[in-house]
Every structure is written in C-alpha cells, then in structure tokens.
Amino acid sequence: ENAIKHNEVSVQAPLLIKVYFKDDQLLVENNVNPKPFVAPGEGIGLDNLQQRFELFTGKRIRFGLKGDTYRVVLPI
C-alpha cells in the first residue's frame, strides 16, 4: 500500500516490488520514484505493523530507505 501511495508509476517508470526470504528474514523491497505530491496520511501504517508484529512474535521489524530502494525486513 505504501509503495503505491508514495511512488509515481508509469510504463516508463514501473514500480518493482520484490518479496523474498534471506537469512531467516522476509524482505519486501520496492524501487523509489517519489510522487511530486502525496496527500498527508496518518503516518501509522508501518508503526501499526511494527506493534502487531512485535506483539505476536516478540521481534521488531526494520524498515527504511537505502539508496533508491525502500526495504521492510521481518525476522522469522
């Protein structure tokens, strides 16, 4: 949802989303092509995911921008 909300998508600049396992982690990555303007949100999506994930697993997710890729890492 965040990838679609925050990125401009076109035939010339497609949104690429990768989901894969590595070293006992589930990784979700997408390229970043920011929209010129994004309507302000409540800013609770990833925080909500973090709280729920930690409640059920006792582990914390990591997320953030690295270069031109946004990554969410869920330890399994």
Report the principal-axis shape: flat
Mean pLDDT: 92
Beta-strand content estimate: 25-35%
Contiguous low-pLDDT stretches (5 residues minimum) are: none
Q: How many strands appear in the DSSP assignment?
A: 4
Radius of gyration using CA atoms only: 14 Å
How would a crystallographer describe the biggest sheet?
4 strands, antiparallel
Describe the structure.
The protein has 76 residues and is of the alpha+beta class. Helix content is 24%, strand content 33%. It has helices at 2-6, 45-57; strands at 17-22, 25-31, 62-66, 69-75. The chain has a four-stranded antiparallel beta sheet, with helices on one face. A hairpin with a 2-residue loop joins strand 1 and strand 2.
Question: Secondary structure elements and their pairing?
Answer:
Blueprint lengths: L1 H5 L10 E6 L2 E7 L13 H13 L4 E5 L2 E7 L1
Antiparallel strand pairs: 1-2, 2-4, 3-4
Main attributes of the structure:
alpha+beta
Quick description:
With 76 residues, the chain is α+β, with helices and mostly antiparallel strands.
